[in-house]
Amino acid sequence: MSREETTAGGQRSEDGDPRALYETISAEMQRVLVGNEAAIEQLMVGLLTRGHILLEGVPGVAKTTLANLFAQVSGLEYSRVQMTPDILPADVTGTYIYREHTGEFELQRGPVFSNVVVADEINRATPKTQSALLEAMQERSVTIRGETLDLPDPFMVVATQNPIEMEGTFELPEAQRDRFQLKLTIDLPDRDVERELADRFDDDPDLGPDRVAQVVDRQAVLAARETVQEVHVADPVVEYILDLVEESRTHPDVSHGSSPRATLAFLNAAKARAAIHGRAYVIPDDVKTLAEPILAHRLVLNTEADLSDVAPTDIVADILEDVEPPGAGADELSFD
């Protein structure tokens, strides 16, 4: 499908309709991917809300491929940085290089000057390099030798990490994890999905990101982002978000709960999820679906919970069970 064609829903990808945009992107990505619908949805949520994504999963579950495909079909400039202990901040942000033939210093922009930046195995980089990247995420600009340079718009960091190999890694501090709007866990596929994957690659061993087409463009993404901002969030839903965040701070297994950045992440991400599902208003299920990706990586467990191997995801499940959503038990409640 070219970017001038209409989607299956009859909408042009340029018209700012988040649902049409999401369906077009998802359909094209699933020509290669199998069983990653939830991850595609949440990548779309991040893109439409200026959010950054932390992907966690064992090697071989297509974390990097997922980000690469997403950039390709979205018509966005993509770069990948393989994080290692010897990588320097300048390797990410860029630096000035002396050109002998001109006698002048020339700016060499780093890979951070892309729309989608994939930081592979971010926890292998030193804290200094992590901080350089995370500062760019927060400020959406970098400073090189006193000159502040704006990053492209849209700008999105997708960082990956391996949860089972800790040797030679530097765990992201709590304040830096908080910079990521969502943390997604890419699980091993079930047998049926893995069989479909095997069949696809048996038929086409070279199947990969180069097989997908650009189906939307940057202007369509920016227009859809404006549409998301207009999505309505009713007062009961806002109070539900505040209740969830407050409960994350008072849970008995938590030493430090979520910051106000989590509240804003809920608000923005829920609006995006509503929009890509064709609604102009947020419902409690939007918030509940996003609770684990937004809260789990922000929780700092107390010593007792840590020693007892309590999982942050279990705490989020407790929070959702303890906090009653708006409309529970009511015959009718409108959120539009």
UniProtKB/TrEMBL annotation:
The keyword Nucleotide-binding applies. The keyword Zinc-finger does not apply. Residues 49-190 form the AAA+ ATPase domain. One of its GO terms (molecular function) is ATP binding. It comes from the Archaea. Keywords: ATP-binding, Nucleotide-binding. This is AAA family ATPase. The lineage of its organism: Archaea, Methanobacteriati, Methanobacteriota, Stenosarchaea group, Halobacteria.
